[in-house]
């Protein structure tokens, strides 16, 4: 049938059920945004495209449904880069729509022109440019399907002069592929290893959440009485109340999980790429079981065996593979020392829970004293761990939470647990600052009946603070945001104390700024909490205001300047002066 190119584009979006778009309005996309309302597509006009992309990531991660990112060609599109790479490592299927400068003038260095395909070639799982107006629906359909299959962002690039053309077109068919369930031989080998294991351990990653495989992994764990750890920032990949749940590995994770996996003779790594950061030593414990047999399950064959020596590799959907392994286990699977193993799991978890509940302060490394000085400087202020315990007292079990990158958010890695997936929106291994607020806004758009709470340090929050000017409008849902206020870039300051003799370059923030005051100036509710009791009360009230009165609240939690573990002990070392630097060597520039 005959239709315009923009009609073909939007009809294809409708075929795939894409109902939400995030970005900033621009002339290059107006032909399609003009008909979004008629199509049932909501356009969320944000304050910055980077935050828009993180809202899209939060929406899709909280719902499992694809959303779209779109903005003006050139600078509007370049602002998406960080968000797109974040979604790539979060395994989030997103549609990136990049209107391009017109074919007629491209290459002449015209207004808002940039190589948008080259820009994202390392950021997306698939990209394609529309070559002819008649192929716009075909190309869009393929890009969306590629994003779904790869569980990652995919890009369609469209010269802006391809809009408002009348074409003769047949809308494409949607051909879905069944996800692989693992080879028969690999499943049999894995089942044999687990049947014969004396101390099996399961490690769940993001793939378990994405495949809706939590219950399948639970059944397998119960059959084996195997403790279940989760990967870094994937606390929602197993029910937190389950007696076999051992907690997250990696940075500031669970000592119980680390101690238990260190005993493993067989580890089933389910739906995880085993990225190096997630298995680094923690609390001084080098816990990865170097002699254990490793079974790695991943949908992407390129990730299997990439970081750890693997005994059995299985390419497949985490849910299907877990179900198949369970069906192939021998009758004696899990029987060796079953009672002793269950008792050890319970005792190890109990010991860690008691230790965690009594941890009030951060230790100093030998030869440093920053944390001691920080406590003495503000003896009445909350420490980061006090703040996290106060938060846990008020956080609803059903809440979706987001986190940002930074020292205070990372200290909280061991605290939250969840009963179901798609509840913990951490920024992931690309590690962008400014993720906490926009991602939780996107989650609330997708799950309006669920309480949502975002967390950020004050440095990272400064990158997304401008979204407070956008989210107070009537059509935007209410959220709750907690900002840990200690007036410093904590993660980098910790590096400075350990390796650079307290030479704090660029780590100090403006103490005259009030984020609660900025929230109030934007028509939102801004609250300051100085004690654990005030923080718990403020969060209880904010959740009630969010759910019952549609009010967004920013809570500024005032905490002392204690600093937790550095992110990268493995990548840092103390520098040594050789030639030396002298300020007298600086010369004035000639103008």
Automatic annotation (TrEMBL):
Enzyme Commission numbers on file: 2.3.3.15
Pfam families for this protein: TPP_enzyme_C, TPP_enzyme_M, TPP_enzyme_N
Keywords (A to Z) from UniProt: Acyltransferase, Magnesium, Metal-binding, Thiamine pyrophosphate, Transferase
Keyword Acyltransferase attributed: yes
Gene Ontology annotations for the cellular component aspect, listed alphabetically: acetolactate synthase complex
Thiamine pyrophosphate enzyme TPP-binding domain location: 404-556
Signal sequence, start to end: none
Residue span, Thiamine pyrophosphate enzyme N-terminal TPP-binding domain: 3-118
BP-aspect Gene Ontology terms: isoleucine biosynthetic process; L-valine biosynthetic process; taurine catabolic process
Cofactor: thiamine diphosphate; Mg(2+)
Stretch list, region Disordered: 353-375
Span of domain Thiamine pyrophosphate enzyme central: 187-323
Keyword Magnesium carried by entry: yes
Single GO MF annotation: acetolactate synthase activity
Domain of life: Bacteria
NCBIfam families linked to this entry: PRK07525.1, sulphoacet_xsc
Similarity annotation: Belongs to the TPP enzyme family.
Name of the protein this chain belongs to: Sulfoacetaldehyde acetyltransferase
């Amino acid at each position: 049938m005959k239709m315009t190119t923009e009609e073909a584009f939007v009809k294809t979006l409708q075929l795939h059920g894409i109902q939400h778009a995030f970005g900033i309005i621009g002339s290059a996309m107006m032909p399609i945004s003009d008909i979004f309302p008629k199509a049932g597509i909501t356009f969320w006009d944000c304050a910055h495209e980077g935050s828009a992309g993180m809202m899209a990531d939060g929406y899709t991660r909280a719902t499992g449904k694809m959303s779209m990112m779109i903005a003006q060609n050139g600078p509007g599109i370049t602002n998406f880069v960080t968000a797109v790479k974040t979604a790539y490592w979060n395994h989030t299927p997103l549609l990136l729509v990049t209107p391009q400068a017109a074919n007629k003038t491209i290459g002449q260095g015209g207004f808002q022109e940039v190589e948008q395909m080259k820009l994202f070639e390392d950021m997306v799982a698939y990209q394609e440019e529309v070559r002819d107006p008649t192929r716009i629906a075909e190309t869009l359909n393929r890009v969306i399907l590629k994003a779904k299959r790869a569980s990652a962002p995919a890009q369609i690039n469209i010269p802006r002069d391809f809009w408002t053309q009348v074409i003769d077109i047949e809308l494409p068919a949607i051909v879905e592929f069944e996800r692989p369930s693992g080879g028969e031989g690999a499943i049999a080998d894995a089942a044999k290893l687990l049947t014969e294991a004396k101390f099996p351990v399961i490690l769940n990653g993001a793939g378990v959440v994405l495949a809706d495989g939590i219950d399948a992994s639970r059944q397998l764990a119960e059959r084996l009485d195997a403790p279940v750890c989760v990967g870094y920032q994937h606390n929602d990949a197993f029910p937190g109340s389950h007696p076999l749940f051992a907690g997250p590995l990696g940075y500031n994770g669970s000592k119980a999980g680390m101690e238990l996996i260190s005993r493993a003779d067989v580890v089933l790594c389910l739906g995880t790429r085993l990225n190096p950061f997630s298995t680094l030593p923690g609390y001084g414990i080098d816990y990865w079981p170097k002699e254990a047999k490793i079974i790695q399950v991943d949908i992407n064959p390129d990730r299997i065996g990439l970081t750890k020596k693997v005994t059995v590799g299985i390419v497949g959907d985490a849910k299907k593979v877990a179900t198949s392994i369970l069906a192939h286990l021998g009758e004696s699977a899990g029987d060796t020392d079953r009672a002793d193993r269950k008792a050890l799991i319970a005792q190890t978890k109990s010991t860690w829970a008691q230790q965690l509940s009594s941890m009030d302060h951060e230790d100093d490394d030998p030869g440093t004293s920053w944390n001691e000085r920080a406590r003495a400087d503000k003896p009445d202020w909350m420490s980061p761990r006090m703040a996290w315990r106060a938060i846990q007292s008020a956080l609803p079990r059903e809440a979706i939470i987001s986190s940002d990158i930074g020292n205070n958010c990372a200290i909280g890695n061991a605290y939250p647990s969840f009963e179901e997936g798609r509840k913990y929106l951490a920024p992931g291994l690309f590690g962008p600052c400014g993720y906490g607020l926009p991602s939780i806004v996107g989650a609330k758009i997708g799950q309006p009946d669920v309480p949502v709470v975002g967390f950020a340090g004050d440095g990272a929050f400064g990158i997304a603070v401008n979204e407070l000017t956008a989210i107070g409008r009537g059509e935007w849902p209410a959220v709750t945001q907690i900002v840990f206020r200690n007036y410093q870039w904590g993660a980098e300051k910790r590096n400075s104390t350990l390796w650079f003799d307290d030479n704090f370059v660029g780590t100090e923030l403006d103490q005259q700024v009030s984020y609660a005051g900025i929230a109030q100036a934007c028509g939102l509710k801004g609250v300051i909490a100085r004690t654990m009791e005030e923080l718990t009360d403020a969060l209880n009230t904010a959740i009630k205001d969010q759910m019952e009165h549609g009010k967004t609240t920013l809570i500024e939690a005032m905490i002392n300047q204690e600093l937790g573990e550095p992110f990268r002990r493995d990548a840092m070392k103390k520098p040594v002066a050789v030639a030396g630097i002298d300020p007298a060597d600086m010369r004035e520039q000639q103008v």
